[in-house]
Amino acid sequence: MTGCWKIGNLKLKNPYFLAPMEKVNDIAFRILCKKAGAGLSYTGMTNPLTHQKILLDDKPALQIFSKDERGIKEFIKKYERKISLIDFNLGCPSKAAKKHRFGCFLHNKPRTIEKILSTIRNSTKKPFTIKIRKSKQAIKIAKTAEKYCNAITIHPRTQEQGYSGKPDIDFARKLKSKLNIPVIYSGNVNLKNADSLLKEFDFVMIGREAIGNPNIFSQLTGKTTRKLDFNDYLKLARKYKFPFSQIKFQAMNFTRFKKNARELRMKISRAEGVEEIERIFNSIK
């Protein structure tokens, strides 16, 4: 694959991104996706007020969420050198987002959104993007964001749809037609439709199709690489001293494309240690 892909001053190898996914996108999984060929990988959502340690050795896109501008400047100053870009989440439809009024539940607060966008833009020279959902306010928000951002991601499902139902590709096209900055398309992107979507959008995000399947990026890019598996993930998980619960969660994900997936998940669910899960995967013929 040849081409020139950029977001702001960030040069990218290709237009296929690992979408931000909570819990799935730990550093070990991001590294595997990068090895397989992902042009850019995103962290899950992070609150700028967090006191938890954030692992960023792979220099990902760091996605943040907030309902106001508190702590953003200080947070960016702390992590700016360790990341490729900052992404602000205006798309999360979860119950937690609804309760605390962040993600897509900020769409009806344009002044708050602009304050946050201005704060982020004035806090970093790194590329800055936002991710939004389909809503009555989405295009207006996108036009405001255009003043501050280097690109915009659109997931054309509504808050009510969550991650089910059909994405409204026509809405995404309409939003794209209104903007003069790159648009990243997100929503049911897979091996069959990724390249056709790239005829209309600048980049695509791979979400659920990548879960337990970092090799999707080598398939998309044509990159020649050894097929990566759970043992590759486990090696990195041990390096970063992941808790057993996270390793078990990802082990379940890595069964998705196995012939005896249901049987494997049953065995993993009963496993009481990492070595036991390792033996289960090593027993697969």
Question: How would you sum up this structure in a few lines?
Answer:
The chain is α/β, with parallel strands linked by helices and 285 residues long.
Task: Walk me through what this model shows.
The protein is α/β, with parallel strands linked by helices and 285 residues long. The chain has 12 helices and 10 strands. It has helices at 27-36, 72-79, 95-100, 110-121, 138-145, 169-178, 194-197, 216-221, 230-239, 244-253, 261-270, 274-282, and strands at 5-7, 10-12, 16-18, 40-41, 61-64, 85-90, 128-133, 151-155, 183-186, 203-206. Helix 7 links the parallel strand 9 and strand 10. The two termini are 33 Å apart.
Features:
single chain; 285 residues; alpha/beta; eight-stranded parallel beta sheet; two-stranded antiparallel sheet; 10 strands; globular
Write the layout of secondary structure elements.
Layout: E1 5-7, E2 10-12, E3 16-18, H1 27-36, E4 40-41, E5 61-64, H2 72-79, E6 85-90, H3 95-100, H4 110-121, E7 128-133, H5 138-145, E8 151-155, H6 169-178, E9 183-186, H7 194-197, E10 203-206, H8 216-221, H9 230-239, H10 244-253, H11 261-270, H12 274-282
Tally of DSSP helical segments: 12
Measured distance between first and last alpha carbons: 33 Å
Placed side by side, the strands forming the largest sheet appear as: 4-3-10-9-8-7-6-5
In terms of DSSP E residues, the strand content is: 5-15%
Q: Helix share of residues?
A: 25-40%
Average predicted confidence as pLDDT: 94
